[in-house]
Amino acid sequence: MLAELSIKNFAIIDDLSVRFSDGLTAITGETGAGKSILINAVNLLLGARATPKMVRTGAKEAELEALFYVDSDSSAARFIAEQGDVPEDGLMVRRVISANNRHRVYINGRLSTMTALGEITASLASISGQHAHQGLLKEDMHLLVLDQFAGLVPLREKAEDLFNQTSEAVARLKKLEASQEQDAKERDLLYFQKDEIEKAAIQPDEDEDLEAEKKRLRNAEMLQQTLSGAVEVLYGGEGAVVDQLGMILKGMHQAADADPTLESFTAILEDKMFGLEDLASELRVHLDTIQMDDQRLEEVEDRLDFLSRLKRKYGGSLEAVEAFYRDIGKKLDKLQSASGDVQEARNLVNDLGGQLAKTVKDLSAKRAKASAGFAKAVSKELQSLGMGKTLFEVDLSFYPAPRNGDGPLCVDGHGVEASGMDRAEFMIAPNVGEELRPLKDIASGGELSRVVLALKVILAKTDAVKTVIFDEVDAGIGGAVADAVGEKLMALSSSHQVICITHLPQIARFAGRHLNIAKRVSGGRTQSMLTPLDGPARVDEIARMLAGGNITETSRQHALELLESTVN
């Protein structure tokens, strides 16, 4: 339950602290006194979004703080224990809203996050205000209310999780399948390129070797003439260099006999002569390799042209062609893996789709079974709220099948959404003889307020929330209906802490604790003050509510009688 609330520099509230008790607490005050500010403050402490505009004019930041007492078996108690604190000491939530838009959250004195705040306060309190009335007009809210009544929220959350997983898996599968055709084209091209390079049978440095061979073939005649002439001059012809050197060497040997110092020169000359003989021999051998072969020249040029085309296609050099060939293998392996990914994605979609179908069918069956009991419970509560002749039913229908009419997001010919395969709409006939029509089309403000209250009372039996706050629950009602609403709130307060902001004395009189909020001007600034009322002060407030501000002895007497007739 909400035990204490402290507000500083928030809207028109300067500094306000209030303690709450269990049971029913009524908060009353004139229009514009700041009742909605209290609701906004509690909403922020439960995780609502803050804006710098909420900070009181002239202040740097606003501070909101609340102390909640939690049940020992609640998720909040587990969170407190995990933090090393004692759950019995309660949960302290503090928010600092800065004018520079740098807000902070503290949970039990520790700096925390909005995500953590939302999770831990989800089961602490619920607020039913004008937004709840408007929310009840939306069909998706109807299905949620039915699920809450039937205890199907965990199954609904499971269905939503499976729906999200299946949707993601379907999207991934479609993306993979869309790329399959492109992959097939790429695979065909890679196999063609692989085959082309393999058939080329490229040898290391082949292009360089062929260029050299082409040059020799093109210059074969010149090479033959040059080498033949060289061999002839060196060794084969008349007066050949080797023959002349032989004659010189013979003379040098004779000279060396006379002058031993010439022996070294003779040796050098002899070595050179033998070297020229070897050179002439090698030139003669090389000359035999040189042929004038036009056919071979054509073959070489064709091969070089082919290799040139390959180099242009695959990187500019034979080394690049080889590297490209190695990359082809890697790409083909990757495409093969991608093909496996498609099958894996299909299997995942089938598996998730099967789980989703089973879950939503189970959820749908349980909703259908619970809808009659829910309608009966709502009718019973409305009867006690002055709508005894009202007919109330839940119209369950299925989502239409998607256009393709098949797939994992279609079950038994019906579409599937995050909430399942069902749609729900509350149907109501407030008056005898009227046909059931959608709640959004027929309910007046007062009737809608009572429907909201009836649903809150029903859901309170299955809801873990211990604090229920009603803002403007009295919209559009009065008289005996207001008495019935007050009695219903008092009955609800036997199991829940109920805080009700109201304009009606018929409701306020049922409260075990009565708080008044009022504005005053101090130091040229408007401030909201919250005052506990008891005894004469409470009589005066009830009288003001009865008389519209003009308190008389008659209105006081009426207020006193009203309070004395109330059984708390």
Which key phrases capture this entry?
17% strand; alpha+beta; Rossmann fold; 6-stranded antiparallel β-sheet; 6-stranded mixed β-sheet; 17 strands; 568 residues
Query: What's the β-strand tally?
Result: 17
Q: Radius of gyration from the CA trace?
A: 49 Å
CATH homologous superfamily designation of the domain at 1-124 and 465-530:
P-loop containing nucleotide triphosphate hydrolases
Q: Which segments are poorly predicted (pLDDT under 50) over 5 or more consecutive residues?
A: none
Number of helical segments with 4 or more residues? 18
CATH topology of the domain at 1-124 and 465-530: Rossmann fold
Q: Hey, roughly how much beta strand do the residues contain?
A: 15-25%
Structural class, judged by helices and strands? alpha+beta
Keywords: ATP-binding, DNA damage, DNA repair, Nucleotide-binding
Organism: Desulfatibacillum alkenivorans DSM 16219
Function: May be involved in recombinational repair of damaged DNA.
GO molecular function, one term: ATP binding
